[in-house]
Design goal:
7-stranded mixed beta sheet, FAD/NAD(P)-binding domain, 6-stranded antiparallel beta barrel, 2 domains, single chain, alpha+beta, 13 helices, 411 residues
């Protein structure tokens, strides 16, 4: 039986960061990270298209929490203790040069996720923290003085404290449940919307710069850009919508009607009035998107005209009023049927996990079991795309690590 002070179950960003924070605060602590796969930090290596969007330059906690569909309220205090600014300073102090892109996303200047992974691996090795791969935790038992974990390698590990950081991957949930914790059932978050519609066929790769997307029958809507794909739509607005509406979409088996307004400042009635004005003002011209100051690709515009039964090249004066009203509807409340979710390869996030009411976010320690700590996506916390999920890992990992060091000192 191996005996350690702290056993970290899960070799992702939260686990490594928690182990490093604990070691920094308590250099004598014997810490072991165990990872069930052969490659620790795998999520870092594939994130951001292999570039690793490690955080976001949103520094005010009150603003930062707005990017978390679940867990934002619990994280607000935590972000005052370890913010994106602290994340940037930590990596730069460990030799990683970072850059902030115009949208606030932060990447290594190398544009290589290996830079971040190697930084964490090297810091872990220098600190004397143990790392065991291809070793899964099969059970977690808590005793009055310690924990015992049976592993897939046949060995039992005894630890004074445990940090559970298995992410959205479900293997960690039974371990927490065995200790009495409540699990919020996990469902996918951050995904593209699968849509088959004649108006979108053959338009893969075209983007709309600004539109309002509303899921009918729910309270969820999002305004922003979207990209037409061969399977439906993706990009900022659909991804954000999928995150906020993750549970409603799951409950509906990913089959809901989506209403798109390509002119968010207009409604059918006000736009219809504007179309009638254009018909009167420029009767000898054909309808064009720039006449409405609308950022819609020409081929998509033509599809929307066709849906209103207006043929290509038709002049304004030849557009009947009923067809103009149809066009106003197509532009401000076009309906598409969502028939599933499509993978978004840069991120894979789950909504759900350990019930936050059972975790003390001042320390990331279980309110039920002393010595059991949590960090990262194993909690019922998930963020939007843009570096926010990693920031949750860095923040909760850091606080858990600091608290683990204090916990060991009190034993």
């Amino acid at each position: 039986m191996q005996v350690v002070d702290v056993l970290v179950i899960g070799g992702g960003p939260a686990g490594f960061f928690g182990a490093l924070a604990c070691k920094q605060a308590n250099p004598n602590a014997k810490i072991l990270i165990m990872e069930k796969s052969s490659k620790p930090l795998a999520k870092i290596l594939i994130s951001g298209g292999g570039r690793c969007n490690l955080t976001n330059a949103t520094f005010e906690p009150a603003q930062l929490v707005n990017f978390y569909p679940r867990g934002g309220k619990a994280l607000r205090g935590a972000f005052t203790r370890f913010s994106p600014k602290d994340t940037i300073q930590w990596f730069e102090s460990h030799g990683v040069t970072l850059k902030t892109e115009p949208d606030g996303r932060v990447f290594p200047v190398s544009d290589d996720a290996n830079t971040i992974a190697q930084c964490l691996l090297s810091a872990t090795e220098r600190s004397g923290i143990g790392l065991r791969t291809e070793c899964a935790a099969l059970s977690l038992l808590d005793f009055p003085t310690h924990f015992e974990v049976d592993t897939s390698t046949g060995e039992t590990i005894q630890a004074s404290a445990v940090l559970l950081t298995t992410g959205g991957e479900r293997s960690g949930y039974p371990l927490a449940a065995a200790c009495g914790h409540t699990m919020i059932p996990p469902v996918p978050s951050l995904f593209s919307l699968a849509i088959r519609d004649a108006r979108l066929e053959g338009l893969s790769g075209l983007s709309v710069q600004r539109a309002n997307l509303k899921l009918k029958g729910t309270r969820w809507q999002e305004t922003g850009a979207f990209l037409i794909t061969h399977r439906g739509i993706s990009g900022p607005a659909p991804l954000k919508l999928s995150a906020w509406a993750a549970r409603d979409l799951y409950d509906a088996q990913y089959r809901l009607d989506l209403q798109i307004n390509f002119l968010p400042e207009w409604n059918p009635e006000t736009l219809y009035a504007r179309l009638l004005e254009l018909k009167s003002q420029i009767p000898e011209q054909a309808p064009q998107p720039q006449q409405l100051d609308i950022q819609v690709p020409r081929r998509l515009w033509q599809r929307l005209l066709e849906s209103a039964d207006i043929a290509a090249g038709t002049l304004w004066r030849n557009c009947s009023n009923p067809r103009l009203y149809q066009l106003a509807n197509q532009l401000t409340r076009a309906e598409f049927h969502v028939e599933g979710r499509a993978e978004f390869k840069d991120e894979f996030v789950t909504a759900g996990g350990i019930d936050l009411k059972e975790v003390d976010f001042r320390s990331m320690q279980s309110k039920l079991i002393p010595g059991l700590f949590f960090a990262g996506e194993v909690l019922d916390v998930d963020g939007l795309t843009g570096g926010f999920n990693f920031q949750n890992a860095w923040t909760t990992g850091y606080i858990a690590g600091q608290s683990l060091a204090e916990y060991l000192e009190g034993l």
